[in-house]
Each structure stands twice: as structure tokens, then as C-alpha cells.
TrEMBL record:
A GO molecular function held by the record: phosphorelay sensor kinase activity
Organism annotation: Paenisporosarcina cavernae
Keywords assigned: ATP-binding, Kinase, Membrane, Nucleotide-binding, Phosphoprotein, Transferase, Transmembrane, Transmembrane helix, Two-component regulatory system
GO term, biological process aspect, one: regulation of DNA-templated transcription
Catalysed reactions, as listed in the record: ATP + protein L-histidine = ADP + protein N-phospho-L-histidine
EC number: 2.7.13.3
UniProt-recorded name of the protein: histidine kinase
Domain Histidine kinase: 20-226
Section of the entire sequence shown: 197 to 422 of 422
Domain of life: Bacteria
Amino acid sequence: TEKMIIQSEKLQLAGEIAAGVAHEIRNPMTVISGFMQMMNSDPNHSYKEYTQVIQSELERINLIIGEFLVLSKPQAIIRRHFMLDHVLKDVCLLFQPELNLHGIEGKLVLEEKDIQLYGEQNQLKQVFINLIKNAIEATESGRTLEMRLSRISPQTVQVSIRDEGIGMTKDVLQQIFQPFFTTKQKGTGLGMMISEKIITEHGGTIEIDSEVNLGTTVRINLPVSN
Ligand code: ADP
Ligand code: MG
């Protein structure tokens, strides 16, 4: 239909813009990274912990930029074995300051440990970041946000992200994976689309249950690798 054609043109354009912006951002980042390395190798400086955090966050920005490039051209992705519970712990740690700021209680429940997956660890990390961001943006202070890892069959694990936020109408839910669909003033409408793409590429599925004023649960099922 005409609407779909317009959307795919928009997506193509966004991809081209993203690729251009990504390139422009990478240049100053290379400079910053060089100075950080210089500071790290100075034996007298007493901010080692801070500069190391800055360095690793710079690397993350680089990966996020790379993530946006999936919109323009299929990238060569490096697949490896990795521990899913480690990724979830990492993401939770990353969001702790933001949860505190919003007065939201974050809970991580690992029913299973040592779950090994095969894929692109940073892309999956990006999915959980996107989903937790959405959950935080939908939730008022005093509420709880829970991320849970469980096994639903010998070959399949589930990560569920449950919030007690504003929830979604059926109409919103139906459009959630559409590129550029957003109900937010400053939304991109790309987070769910990118997340679905990454999960599908990892042989997984994504399901959403939501009730207006009660909250939302996103369930991601992924195949384990032994
Ligand atoms: P963005 O967050 O930039 O709006 P997304 O693709 O991440 O784009 O999400 C699309 C839309 O889906 C959001 O604008 C919001 O309306 C809805 N949505 C996603 N997650 C949630 C959630 N946990 N609770 C309520 N609404 C949500
Ligand atoms: Mg979002």
C-alpha cells in the first residue's frame, strides 16, 4: 500500500542520515579516546577508575552507532558464545542511577544461571536497554520494574521485562513494531523495531502483554546454545 511505501522510503532516508551522522560522531570520538588513553598511561593520575569508565562508555557509544547502521546496510556481525545472565546483570547495573532518579524499584530475578547463548552480545544488550528505557518512560515513581530470566523448555530461555506503567491500548500495541511509530514527544519510534529485528536474527521471538493503567510485560524467548 501507499502507506507502506512511504514508510520504507522514510526508513531508507533515516538509514542514510544515521550512516552520515555516525561517521561524523566517530571522528571526535577517536580524538577523545586517544586523550583518554594518554591519561590512562600517566602513572601520576588518580582518576583511573573514572577514565576507565569513560573509555568503556565511549566503546559503547561506538557500538550503539553501529547499531543504527543496521538500518542502512546489513553489517558483518561477529557471533560468539556468551553468558546471558552476565549481559542482564550488566544492563541492570547500567540503569541503577536512572531507576534511582525516577524512584522506581528495579528487580533482577535470575531463576537460571550460566545460560549460554550464541550471537552478538552487544546487540542483545541493546535490546534490553531499549526495553528497559521504554519501561522506565512508562512508569511513575514508587512502582516496580522487574526483569526475570527463566527457562521455559530445555532449549529455550525467556527474559521478561515487566513494568507497572501506563500500559498500551490495542491500537498502540498493534503499531508498536512499525518504524517511527511513537506516542512520545521526543521518541524516535525505532527502539521496538530494532529490538524485534535483533531478536529475530537470534532465532528468538518477542511477545507483549499490556493493559492500560496496569502495565506491560515484554517476553523474549531465545534458543540456548550448549
Ligand atoms: P519510542 O520509545 O522512541 O517511542 P519505541 O519503538 O521504543 O519508540 O516504542 C514505540 C511506542 O510503543 C512508544 O512510543 C510507546 O507508545 C509504546 N511502548 C513501548 N514500550 C512501552 C511500555 N513498556 N509501556 C507503555 N508503552 C510502551
Ligand atoms: Mg523506546
